[in-house]
Amino acid sequence: MNFFERIRLIDSSKKGEDIFNLIEQMYPICRSITGNGVRETLSIISKIIPIIIHEIPSKTKVLDWEVPLEWNIQDAWIKNAKGEKIVDFKNSNLHVLNYSIPIHKKVNLQELKEHLFTLPDYPEWIPYRTSYHDKEWGFCMSYNQFKELNDEIYEIKIDSKHEKGSLTYGEFFIKGQIKDEVLISTHICHPSLANDNLSGIAVSVFIADILSKIKTKFSYRFLFIPATIGSITWLSLNEDKIKKIKYGLVLNLLGDSAKFNYKKSRSGYSAIDKIVQNCLKHFVEDYGVLDFSPYGYDERQYCSPGYNLPVGRLSRSIYGEFPEYHNSADNLDFIKPDKLEESFELLLSIIHVIEDNKTFINLISKGEPQLGKRGLYRKIGGESDVKEYQMALLWILNQSDGENSLLDISVKSGINFNLIKTAAEELENVELIKAIKN
Amino acid sequence: MNFFERIRLIDSSKKGEDIFNLIEQMYPICRSITGNGVRETLSIISKIIPIIIHEIPSKTKVLDWEVPLEWNIQDAWIKNAKGEKIVDFKNSNLHVLNYSIPIHKKVNLQELKEHLFTLPDYPEWIPYRTSYHDKEWGFCMSYNQFKELNDEIYEIKIDSKHEKGSLTYGEFFIKGQIKDEVLISTHICHPSLANDNLSGIAVSVFIADILSKIKTKFSYRFLFIPATIGSITWLSLNEDKIKKIKYGLVLNLLGDSAKFNYKKSRSGYSAIDKIVQNCLKHFVEDYGVLDFSPYGYDERQYCSPGYNLPVGRLSRSIYGEFPEYHNSADNLDFIKPDKLEESFELLLSIIHVIEDNKTFINLISKGEPQLGKRGLYRKIGGESDVKEYQMALLWILNQSDGENSLLDISVKSGINFNLIKTAAEELENVELIKAIKN
Amino acid sequence: MNFFERIRLIDSSKKGEDIFNLIEQMYPICRSITGNGVRETLSIISKIIPIIIHEIPSKTKVLDWEVPLEWNIQDAWIKNAKGEKIVDFKNSNLHVLNYSIPIHKKVNLQELKEHLFTLPDYPEWIPYRTSYHDKEWGFCMSYNQFKELNDEIYEIKIDSKHEKGSLTYGEFFIKGQIKDEVLISTHICHPSLANDNLSGIAVSVFIADILSKIKTKFSYRFLFIPATIGSITWLSLNEDKIKKIKYGLVLNLLGDSAKFNYKKSRSGYSAIDKIVQNCLKHFVEDYGVLDFSPYGYDERQYCSPGYNLPVGRLSRSIYGEFPEYHNSADNLDFIKPDKLEESFELLLSIIHVIEDNKTFINLISKGEPQLGKRGLYRKIGGESDVKEYQMALLWILNQSDGENSLLDISVKSGINFNLIKTAAEELENVELIKAIKN
């Protein structure tokens, strides 16, 4: 029974609404690279999959970095001269510069403006800004509001703390038949931004959930980590596991309506690159493939030269290249259940190949075997249309010389992997081919 | 003297009409994968080239297959309730399902229709259908006739026999200076279809005829075989000869007016692939090149993984992709003497490369040799036009480092092989280059 | 300090006018492959760079050739029946067939015409023609003048001499820190033609001049030689130096207004090919790249198979493919100071890569180093625009695994070499990378 059949047997329900509902629950929380927002998020995830939560103490040395002080925030606001709150963290956690130092003082307009961030091109939207490494304070607001500010004295307060604590991340491991691992990594450090990356988190959770309910060949490791410092921390503390990673994907931006865009691993020719491109070809009409570049999400770390892992990145919209990137327009209206559903299904089709790809040898390699006498061929010859399934049989027989996997045959023939896999099972049943690898 | 010069010396006549006339003779015969139709066809061919005719007994095991019972047919018809023959095998041998079991009974319209084959998209044409492996009976007719059938009782008769006998094929071998072989294979199992594949048969015959009249470097083996079971039979019985095959072509569909289409060998990078593509580039304005796929004619068998022979397929129209494919419209009007002539000439240009390709080394490789003092260069310098012949001289000298054959030089320079060959002969005469391979 | 900074420190002036002025000085001289015109030209060059002048005796054997007798010309003319000079060498040295034998006689129109060369397509222009290897005499004139010739007796005189003498060429060598050499070769044998190749000569001279004023890593060898016989002579007499040539360029046609066209070296994948193409990509909007062919200028000799040197050809207009090629329209109006200037600057950017390319290893290769704490990163995160400089830092860190040079990183990233080089210097300063090659 192939991967898809086993999946559908235990759960054939549509997942779009479930994924969206999980995002809704996580959306209001103010996350950052450390702190209680991350813990609260992981706690919600724990209700679906039993993740292990790791707490790595502040100041721990991790590769070239160190774990920062933990940041938590209670409140933040700007009051005008009349004492009215004109900016309130409670309305949107994007209003505060993420990782801001605490502050409470009166400032004039000029000083205030030095600490304000806006988006003049999108005057209604509040930007998302961070300052993890420099001790800064600041507020983000819409450009429309910014333009209305009067020259008066403002009272500002950011009730935040940087304290010794820890960096928190979640990990979920599914033990497969073999020790080789598939890594799925998503970042969990962004506050109220729906596509970036609650979409990636929630799709990962439901993939993890369904995989945990069947027996898989590969082992699967899901990471829910703060971007950059989180992957650096995990890599630093898990040197023993890194070599086991045979395939990896960084997941993000999976809920919007853009076409899929796959960013290749550093080598550009990893098995995961071939798999995802072949799946996309059969799964959607149009998609993009990006060469690796050393910028973006945590693939930057996994693909640093000392690791050079076979990790690609799967998204819809491209990092940094859509108007709603890193601002208040990346909200629950920006993502759609059917798009989340489609992302989920694409991932299953990718995992299908990872799980079910094999290399066979044709046991009757001289000439074509007679398919007719084995009940594998059409009865009336001479018709000019040949069924795709019959082509799948012929392609597998012709290419199974030990050099070509079923994935390779899917790529060469243009026939989707699932049909190739089904045809291979039938050929194996009648003992025309025999598996030699994987 | 190069191949073309030797060919033209013994026979410089146009062959288009001769080839067409041979097709005309073979056209009326009802052929199948076995039986007297094949024998009759080979007998006609024997009048031009002295082929050896092989008879392989029914039930002989050949690779994964066995030679079928021999099929012969005397007559077949459908009579209506009035006793009128509305379908008569004597009018067109396409009317009967090829390899039909014998039958003689009365049937009502409903039962009859289950055994009728038509082409609704081309209502005037009679399809060609076969049932080699299942015991079926059936008739083919035009869709127009089919629509007019009344709900009455029909008498049907197919006077055929399946008996122990043999599979018949023809072979013609030309011994060359070396034992390496060129394989030319055509199928001879189709009844009255002109392009598929009387065109391939007749062009092969005239190529074989002309090659047999000169001394060739390579040995040439021409096979006239029933499709699939014929190539499987030959491969099964000739293991010792298979390793000698250095180049091969399956020839078919060479008489219609479509552009040439070459289907590459399984590897896609065989010498024959390079040769045919280079010849086509210089021979015609427009042509197609198809990647290998495990469907089509006997290249399926030659390119099965246990043999993986360097065999491509040369056609005009593409297998299964033209309206006249496998129906009564593939008749003598569908093929033209000038197209057959052109196919013949293209094949000669391909064989020219096979015969005459060599690799040289430049004996004065440091700097250009002075062509002027050897009478090989234009007298007045400074003109901006350089003759193609002079370019051929320079290309050969520059590329003859032992790595590049004359074919490679033709490909790189864009100068046709014949001119490169002529220039190489002149350079060899003045001892500027020396052959090192082939 | 990188190459450009060192160059600009000693001389940051614009060179377009200087180069043009040098061409103006050399323009009137009647050059050929030997003789006093070459000596006079080299003497003018000597005023700028201290070239060594070599005199190779006539009849010296050089590879497959021999040095020809030296040719010098005093005067040449055609007088009509009235004794009027209708063609006068003193007006244009193109009027005489270059390397003409001496002659003084009376001829009728018919005989004269057999020795006249014109350009019917450009009836106002005088062609440039040569006859180095055959003992001919002849005149070149405009087609308009040719059409007006009357059927009368003409007196013709060519006061030239072929005598034992020598072949003259100039060589300028700059000793670098290493013995590996860069070869810059230009031909000096054309009479009054400005673009072909006074432009190449003059640009070379100013490149040589400026390189001689700084310390270079590579050694540089500039050749000012007659075409074909000059490069053959140099190659023949300098076998010991040939192996040291790591990069080479034949320079010509650098003063006209066409886009740049680079002709690749014989292999097509030499380091010089990669360098020039990458420089052109960043230097100009549009440019051409030509595959190697064994025709053109002295790259024919450097790229003959016995040497196969990594020598490309840099030009604007393409050899033989512009109307002004080899005729009187290739004059001082055809070339422009700003185009010469641009050619000069492009060459500096090419030499910049040759001089400054290195391969580094990332010393903190597991994960990204923390650029922020080293002052190399922007302060406020979350902005969607990433500066190109920061991308340069990330690309270098990601690709510096010992396999990729800075040039490779420039090619992959699409960031110009100079910015990559600058970023690498900063990364080297903070000890994040270490040079391992070059």
Describe this structure in words.
The structure is a homotrimer of 438-residue chains. The two termini of chain A are 16 Å apart. Chain A contains 14 helices and 19 strands. The longest helix of chain A has 20 residues, at 337-356. Chain A is 32% helix and 23% strand. In chain A, 49% of the residues are buried. Chain A is an alpha/beta fold. The model of chain A has no long low-confidence stretch (mean pLDDT 96). Chains in contact: A-B, A-C, B-C. At the A-B interface, helix 12 of A face helix 7 of B.
Write a short abstract of this structure:
The structure is a homotrimer of 438-residue chains. Chain A has 14 helices and 19 strands.
Give the integer mean of the pLDDT values of chain A: 96
Give me the count of strands of chain A: 19
Tell me the fraction of residues in β-strands of chain A, as a range.
15-25%
Please bin the fraction of helical residues of chain A.
25-40%
How far apart lie the N and C ends of chain A?
16 Å
Oligomer: homotrimer
Class by SSE composition of chain A: alpha/beta
- Biggest sheet features of chain A: 8 strands, mixed
Q: Overall 3D geometry of chain A?
A: elongated
Name the largest protein-protein interface in this structure: A-B, 28 and 36 residues
Number of helices of chain A: 14
Unreliable sequence segments of chain A? none
Gyration radius of chain A, in Å: 26 Å
Give the neighbour order of strands across the main sheet of chain A: 1-10-12-11-13-16-14-15
